[in-house]
Amino acid sequence: MISVEHLTKRYGDFTAVDDLTFEINEGHVYGFLGPNGAGKSTTMNIMTGCLSATEGHVRIDGYDIFEEPNKAKKLIGYLPEQPPLYLNETPLEYLRFVGEAKGLRGAELKKQIEQVIHQTRIEDVKNRRISSLSKGYRQRVGIAQALLGNPKVIILDEPTVGLDPIQIIEIRDLVKELGQTHTVIFSSHILSEVQAICDQVLIIAKGKLIAFDKPENLEKRLLAPNEIIITSDATAEETKEILAGIDHIIDTNMEEKDTKIIEVHIRTDHDNIYEISRAIFFAFAAKGKALLEMSLKKANLEDIFIELTEKSDDTEILENGTVMETTKSEVSDV
Amino acid sequence: MIAVLKHELRTYFHSITTYVFGAFLLAFVGIGSMLYNLEAAVSNFEYVLSFGSFAFVVIVPILTMRVIAEEKKQRTDQLLYSLPITTTEVIIGKYLSLLIAYLIPLCIICIYPLIFSRFGDVYLLTSYGSILGFFIMGAALIAIGIFISSLTENQGFAAGIGIAVILLNYYSVRLSEYVSSTAYGSLIAICIIIIALGFVINHLIKSSNLAYGICFILIAATMITYYIDMTKFEGLLPKIMTKLSLFERFNVIVNGVFDMTAIVYYLTIIVFFLFLSVQSLEKRRYN
């Protein structure tokens, strides 16, 4: 559907987007995730033809956005970060202009306007001036504009920024709904949002793509090298001795809580975490030491995000669906 | 293009500036015809237009200041870029809608000579020839106004620069009598113009090397020409100022000569500045 190849955008010495390559398939909701200034908006602006690229190609359904912009743009509906609204018009007038510019005429135009007004639930305000609408409604008018012309791809740049919690939920539901009929690309710096809505997540930091996978998979990857936290009444030497007899332990980190109490963070590369916790349990029991507490630590997308974006300097671009080895080991530090 | 045209027209008739523009133009021409045709009982309507042309100094910037600056400020230019229309279509659509807004008061002005002709001998041919010239000159000034508006996102700034440029153009013939006509004076003036041009190029394409390069080459070429043949520079500055004046050419038409070169000149100005506006808008894509 959309293929981005070696996309680079430089502003003088500053590289906003750095050799970005990825492929987007039809009929999913994609989340563009990254800290502020990571190059999300720049990438989206290039993909929609609003900005030129220094190098690289963007093809929408085979049409190059730079060479056949009009054909490519017809396939895209775009809502920039700040909704581009003419404030002294009504949503109806505004949508009529956008529809006409997208080549809709007469009955078809009317039908589509009605449809998008219904879809984005702005019937109540369609004859009020946009300047008097709340931010949530303005965002909806912006989305309605993107939907006109029934484009295959809808690109929304941080559509929930600056909205109140109820409005955020409403917009998220709308995005989910759109995901059933369109390919939706949607950017955000809020993880829970991406986790809740998207089928696929692209993490971008410093202009580079550092992960591209399903949210569950990204989390799973972190669950694999897991961490077990135990509290025991053994001394540091004794604990060391006991743990030495157990395989698949890659790292331990001890902290003496009290004179008699020790807390140990154990990391393992075993696939089945319960095997290890079981082995630890019996090893301590065999030495006559008590395990006062044992817990398993699971990482979430937040951890991956922080890990990946902070360490993006020395990671490389990932293949679709695989996390690189270096990233994996870094992630395990969590 | 049609979509942009319709949209712009709808905006104009919602906003007061279009009405102010029309009212100003009609008031100026009205005062002119009262002074010349009624008070002084002159039957030449073209003099009224010559008088009325001063109104352009104020009304053209009022009409054109918001046309692109406003889009930039409200960030609606992003919408225009993402729609399946080209920047050329956007500029032409906007330009044509401005022309229509300008034609409406002009249509009313077209009735005046007919009214006057009922009370005396009016040279209708020169009258309507002048109205045509008046229209095309206004059209050229509007193209300049669009370009100025495309340079900034501040409407007030666009209006200010617009007024300054048109005022300078209006008085350029009169000023040309006061500027130095010596070869040396012209040389300095041309160098200053080249440097100013360099700043504009630098602003437009954000490439200081290219701007300085062009500046350097042009100044070098000017210097060489100056040392080879100094006589070419004598009286050059006043000549350039006279040639560049849009109003001066209109005065030729007012004097009863329907000068085709003037029309061609205006059309060239229109095409040139619309082209620059497209480039200026396109430039934002390249930053």
UniProtKB/TrEMBL annotation, chain A:
Coiled coil: none annotated. GO terms for molecular function: ATP binding; ATP hydrolysis activity. Keywords: ATP-binding, Nucleotide-binding, Transport. Gene3D superfamilies: P-loop containing nucleotide triphosphate hydrolases (3.40.50.300). It holds the Pfam family ABC_tran. Residues 2-231 form the ABC transporter domain. InterPro entries: AAA+_ATPase, ABC_transporter-like_ATP-bd, P-loop_NTPase. The keyword S-adenosyl-L-methionine does not apply. Belongs to the ABC transporter superfamily. This is ABC-2 type transport system ATP-binding protein. It comes from Lutispora thermophila DSM 19022. The lineage of its organism: Bacteria, Bacillati, Bacillota, Clostridia, Lutisporales.
TrEMBL record, chain B:
It is found in: Cell membrane. Keywords: Cell membrane, Membrane, Transmembrane, Transmembrane helix. It comes from the Bacteria. Residues 42-168 form the ABC-2 type transporter transmembrane domain. It is a multi-pass membrane protein. GO terms for cellular component: plasma membrane. One of its GO terms (molecular function) is ABC-type transporter activity. The keyword S-adenosyl-L-methionine does not apply. InterPro entries: ABC-2_transporter_component (IPR051449), ABC2_TM (IPR013525). Its main location: membrane. The chain crosses the membrane at residues 12-35, 47-69, 90-115, 127-148, 155-171, 183-202, 209-228, 252-276. The keyword Cell membrane applies. This is ABC-2 type transport system permease protein.
